[in-house]
Amino acid sequence: MTLIMQNISKNYQDGEQVVEVLKNVSLEVKQGEFVAIVGPSGAGKSTFLSIAGALLTPTSGEITIGGQALSSLSTKELTRVRLEKVGFIFQGANLIPYLNVKDQLLVIAELAGHRNSEVKQRATQLLEELGLSHRANQYPEKLSGGEKQRVAIARAMMNNPDVILADEPTASLDAERGYSVVQMIAQEVKRNNKAAIMVTHDERILDLVDRVVRIEDGQLH
């Protein structure tokens, strides 16, 4: 399932002024492709990622996920897209403190209305793939930074989304842990044939992606 962003612009009104955050940008990410977006702070990276994941609506332009144009969808349908077609990995792991590792995954499936034995099997399989089986019953406070971020990867993959979006996934990790976390994202992208975009400042992990796109002054280069 390909992610296509066509002629995306995003403007904000700031008093009398119109601020252009994104200026007519286009990007296509194919199944099994892992793309990094790099650029200075304030260049529009997070806005770009939020629009790709249907968290923000562009001022103009179109996003298509797996052949479905998002502009034609209702608010309810967009919520369904975010739950089922997009997996988010945030800067901090953003885990729920009172849920154990396995339940962090199961709650995502439940939100999407999936409550069967296959769901539990999938959670078990993902934790195994990411080397977290022995942590399944632990709570976030007992996990290291790297383990938390691996749980976040597993959670993003839980509903088998078409698109994975990662926002600075190494920001709170040291160099070695950061590298291994991005390595795991890359493996999951290839293993499960996902389209993935990662926003990062971390130049040391760019050898793990298929393509690097630079964003500057709201434009892609």
Per DSSP E runs of 2 or more residues, the count of β-strands stands at: 10
- Global outline: globular
Return Rg in Å: 17 Å
**Name of the top-level CATH class:** Alpha Beta
Strand line-up across the major sheet: 6-7-8-3-9-10
Give the N-terminus to C-terminus distance in angstroms.
24 Å
Approximate helicity band: 25-40%
What is the mean predicted local confidence, pLDDT?
90
CATH topology: Rossmann fold
What is the chain-wise order of helices and strands?
Answer: EEEHEEHEHHHEHEEE
* Contiguous helical run count: 6
How much of the residues is beta strand, in percent?
25-35%
What report would you give on this structure?
There is one protein chain. The chain is α/β, with parallel strands linked by helices and 221 residues long. It has a single domain (3-220), classed as 3-Layer(aba) Sandwich (Rossmann fold), CATH 3.40.50.300. The chain contains 6 helices and 10 strands, in the order βββαββαβαααβαβββ. The strands form 2 sheets. The chain has a 6-stranded mixed β-sheet with strand order 6-7-8-3-9-10. β1 and β2 form a beta hairpin. α3 packs across α4 (117-129), α3 (101-111) packs parallel to α5 (145-157) and α5 packs parallel to α6 (175-191). The longest helix has 17 residues, at 175-191.
